[in-house]
């Protein structure tokens, strides 16, 4: 056991540096003979053990952050999860999620693994995001981690966060024109509400088309329609699916007399959506 006197000011200094509790900081300094660097490692190791012990816990709460770069050419969405709604609403947790999103949009990592290797500022030092998450897990006592990370690029990217950080949307537009910010937000709200499967029918994958056709054919046969009519009627149902489920063909929520494509055309001739991402908490 250490014989070094650990003062209250030393404990408070370590607490300010690490965010750990008073008793944890005192124990860390005592165990490491007052060596601050060793004490920080001690606390981090404790946090890592807490993180490891909570890997079997469900972490379906959290915050979804959508962010664009300063030039509005890049956008990212991250979902940072925790275990309880109480932690998810904590200002420090939201600030941590925003810091991760800011770093992501500046660096555009290709994966969550690459994101975890980027560094952020923590108590006046540079720390890898993965290590910061372990430290945060140790401090909060809940399993924390980034479960989703999306990035898009475009001539104009608009970000939208809905429902107290529970859903995030990115919209890439084909042109950075007057009115693009407001139009992008309107389209993002459309995506949040209607959850389209693709931009238009060309973006629907073959598996989805095949599934929709099979469902339609089974319904038609169940109605007793002649086999010769099945393909034609099923094709009509598929067109209805495209209208309901692809973004540009959907009725515009704010004006049902127009499709989303027609709405964008009124903002600027030829304006369209080039990409979008939608992330819902826990989905």
Automatic annotation (TrEMBL):
GO molecular function: translation elongation factor activity
Compartments, record wording: Cytoplasm
Classification via Pfam families: EF_TS (PF00889)
InterPro entries per the UniProt record, alphabetical: EF-Ts_dimer_sf, Transl_elong_EFTs/EF1B, Transl_elong_EFTs/EF1B_dimer, Transl_elong_Ts_CS, UBA-like_sf
Transmembrane segments: none
Gene3D superfamilies, sorted: 1.10.286.20, DNA helicase RuvA subunit, C-terminal domain (1.10.8.10), Elongation factor Ts, dimerisation domain (3.30.479.20)
Similarity section: Belongs to the EF-Ts family.
Domain Translation elongation factor EFTs/EF1B dimerisation: 75-282
UniProt keywords, alphabetically: Cytoplasm, Elongation factor, Protein biosynthesis
Chain spans, region Involved in Mg(2+) ion dislocation from EF-Tu: 84-87
Main location group: cytoplasm
Reported function: Associates with the EF-Tu.GDP complex and induces the exchange of GDP to GTP. It remains bound to the aminoacyl-tRNA.EF-Tu.GTP complex up to the GTP hydrolysis stage on the ribosome.
Native species: Mucilaginibacter rigui
Protein name, as recorded: Elongation factor Ts
PANTHER family in alphabetical order: ELONGATION FACTOR TS (PTHR11741), ELONGATION FACTOR TS, MITOCHONDRIAL (PTHR11741:SF0)
HAMAP family (UniProt xref): EF_Ts
